[in-house]
Design a protein that fits this description.
Blueprint: H1 2-9, H2 12-17, H3 56-66, E1 79-88, E2 108-116, E3 131-139, E4 142-149, H4 162-169, H5 185-193, H6 198-204, E5 219-220, E6 225-228, E7 234-243, H7 252-261, H8 265-275, E8 281-290, E9 316-326, H9 330-335, E10 348-350, H10 354-370, H11 452-460, H12 463-478, H13 483-493, H14 498-507, E11 540-545, H15 551-563, E12 567-572, E13 576-579, E14 585-588, E15 590-591, E16 602-607, H16 613-628, E17 633-635, H17 640-646, E18 654-656, H18 660-672
Enzyme class: oxidoreductase
Organism: Peribacillus glennii
Region (Disordered): 1-32
Length: 682
């Protein structure tokens, strides 16, 4: 039975194959298959005459072009995606009857889309923003969508406020500025007047909002869901994606510069990693809570502005997802994919989280306008791997050709087919939660603590991370023109921590608070990136090298760092090849003009026997820029003199040495650390 499921689950690639078209070596046709004899000139009445209406090829080509663009997503417009597979480690039968979480031998196809929230499709990718992390599981029971973010909480508690939030954070309507940025008056005015956002703002202004890579950020389901097992017993559940490479970020100055140097930085990183076979991996974790324990905490477990601290409710790792194939066509797959938190399978159900409840409506509503009608499920990227049968008919973009005269339930002409399935046959049955109460527009008293977990987050940060948060507040509010809004934010975050509010108040011309603060002293080590996994794998190192380098030793070092999973890329003053003193040649990947230190995780400076003044100056720039972003820098041979000229010899994360083996181990260790915050000037 398991083998049959494996075949069924993995037919997504086969299903997509019928829609793939390779035009190489083919003759041009119209969309109806008619071969085209001319595609350079429209049909005219004489060489200099008017174009004729009967030119059906021109009209088809132009009409299709005119309609190539669909409305971009209102939020999460800037996204990139990849295919992969998921395997559960051990059966989760005790907690859920979802079949894709039962058999460790079954590989379930997945499609994952990463995105920013605020920016348009043309915006840069390294802006300060929440990142979407949406996963579509193509299971044998139907599609299951885990639609989350890289931050486990959200700005608001009730979905009715979502349009207000997005209106506030989007470019201001009177001048359509700024793009993909929260550093402006309307956003911070919203925050000051909607203080449930306090916890989310702490995450948003932390390093989590500027990830180094999609491969190095966590994903969260955000909401509280339910697992339901075969006996009908339910557990509350929260979902976590844990990146195998750990959680790492950019620094703010670096993120801004990358936006100009390479606005596609994050998608390029994902694409190239998959192409090189460095497949991104994420472990799926769940926090499980028995229903009888719902009220045993000092926070409401249904509040989407609250986390379940991992030290109180541990994360159980249950499986791994591997992204192993890039898309064939960004529009057909990444842009047309339609996610929806309401796409569930038996064994996964909802909670009464009011933000989740609203999302269950809005996602379908959004797809209707973006994808032109109710048949978006028939697009290849959205089609389930299992067959689907119902009495839905017609509409824009219908591809299914339904046969027979009956399209209603109940019926006798077709033997009452298609008929509902019983629970034993796999029919979805909603969890029978008892619900009663008066119709009311209100919010539970248990949702009204807005500052305790914001304080928990602050308490849990390392000193460096705290400094980055202060800098982020200072930058964001430094862009706010309204002094009253700036002061309101200072007063608001004094409830989180007086020292925090006072530190950025001084920077933005506001009055520092004299009292306030939270009584919360608890910390959660899981919240600090300082405690993440640190390894050299897939780190990109810019190797600055000139002619007449020491061939044998340099090649040995490059081979050594590659053996540790580090990816060296050669940078020199011109493309082609650089030649060593022993005749060794290295192909140049980038010039100083086409590369930049912000695009690398580390630098390895080699130099050469003789370099031009420009080579010298460019190398010094690379070193100083990388050093200012706390990156590891290694140097051997002629490269050591550049460290001396730059005045950084002996600094943290700066490695040099004549012994190759000692240099290799020390340099790889420095690369693994990612940043060397000892250089931080506070």
């Amino acid at each position: 039975m398991a083998e049959e499921r494996k075949v069924d689950s993995n037919n997504k690639n086969e299903q997509l194959e019928q829609f793939r078209v390779n035009d190489q070596g083919q003759k041009m046709t119209t969309n109806q298959g008619l071969k085209v004899s001319e595609d350079e000139f429209s049909l005219k009445a004489g060489e200099r005459g008017p174009t004729l209406m009967e030119d059906f090829h021109f009209r088809e080509k132009m009409t299709h072009f005119d309609h190539e663009r669909i409305p971009e997503r209102v939020v999460h417009a800037r996204g990139f995606a990849a295919h992969g597979e998921f395997q559960v480690y051990d059966s989760m039968k005790e907690y859920t009857k979802a079949k894709f979480l039962q058999d460790p031998s079954v590989k379930t196809p997945v499609f994952v889309r990463f995105s920013t929230v605020a920016g348009s499709r043309g915006s840069a990718e390294t802006v300060r923003d929440v990142r979407g992390f949406a996963t579509k599981f193509y299971t044998e029971e139907g599609n299951y969508d885990l639609v989350g973010n890289n931050i486990p909480v959200f700005f608001i508690q009730d979905a009715i406020k979502f349009p207000d939030l997005i209106h506030a954070v989007k470019p201001e309507p009177h001048n359509e500025m700024p793009q993909a940025a929260s550093a402006h008056d309307t956003f911070w005015d919203f925050v000051a007047n909607n203080q449930e956002s306090a916890h989310m703002i702490m995450w948003h202004l932390s390093d989590r909002a500027i990830p180094r890579s999609f491969r190095m950020m966590e994903g969260f389901g955000v909401h509280t869901f339910r697992f339901v097992n075969d006996q009908g017993k339910a557990h509350f559940v929260k979902f976590h994606w844990k990146p195998v490479l750990g959680v790492h970020s950019l620094v703010w100055d670096e993120a801004q510069k990358i936006s100009g140097k390479d606005p596609d930085f994050l998608r390029r990183d994902l694409w190239e990693s998959i192409e090189m076979g460095n497949f991104p991996e994420y472990e799926l974790g769940v926090q499980l809570l028995a229903e009888e324990d719902e009220f045993n905490f000092d926070f409401d477990i249904l509040d989407p502005t609250k986390i379940w601290p991992e030290e109180d409710i541990p994360v159980k790792i249950i499986g791994k997802m591997t992204l192993n194939r890039n898309v064939d066509n960004v529009f057909a797959e990444t842009e047309q994919v339609a996610f929806h938190p309401g796409h569930v399978v038996p064994g996964i159900d909802f909670s009464n989280d009011p933000l989740l409840q609203g999302r269950l409506f809005s996602y379908t509503d959004t797809q209707l306008i973006r994808l032109g009608g109710p048949n978006f499920h028939e697009l290849p990227i959205n089609r389930p791997v299992c067959p689907f049968h119902n009495n839905q008919r017609d509409g824009y973009g219908r591809q299914t050709i339904n046969v027979g005269q009956v399209s209603y339930h109940k019926n006798s002409l077709a033997g009452n087919a298609p008929a509902p399935a019983t629970e034993a046959e796999g029919g979805y049955v909603h969890y029978q939660e008892k619900v009663e109460g008066r119709k009311i527009r209100s919010r539970s008293e248990s949702f009204k603590d807005h500052f305790s977990q914001a304080a928990l987050f602050w308490n849990s940060m390392s000193q460096v991370e705290k400094e980055h948060i202060i800098q982020a507040f200072s930058f964001e509010l430094g862009k706010v023109k309204s002094l009253s809004v700036r002061q309101e934010i200072v007063d608001m975050f004094a409830h989180v921590n007086v020292e925090l509010a006072a530190a950025f108040a001084v920077q933005i011309g506001a009055t520092p608070p004299k009292e306030g603060g939270s009584s919360v002293t608890k910390t959660s080590p899981a919240l600090s990136q300082e405690n993440t996994i640190k390894m050299p794998n897939t780190r990109k190192v810019g190797v600055i090298i000139g002619h007449e380098f020491n061939g044998a030793e340099v090649m040995s070092i490059l081979a050594g760092i590659q053996a540790e999973g580090v990816q060296p890329e050669i940078v020199s003053d011109m493309l082609g090849a650089v030649k060593g003193s022993d005749g060794t040649e290295l192909a140049v990947d980038h010039t100083f003009l086409t590369a930049d230190p912000v695009l690398f995780d580390a630098l390895y400076i080699i130099g050469g026997a003789s370099e031009s003044k420009k080579f010298h100056n460019d190398t010094i720039y690379f070193i100083k820029e990388a050093f200012s972003h706390f990156k590891p820098i290694g140097a051997t041979h002629e490269g050591v003199k550049y460290l001396e000229v730059s005045g950084i010899v002996g600094s943290a994360g700066v490695v040099q040495g004549e012994d190759i083996n000692e240099f290799l181990s020390t340099f790889v260790e420095a690369i693994s650390a990612h940043r060397h915050w000892e250089r931080q000037v506070v």
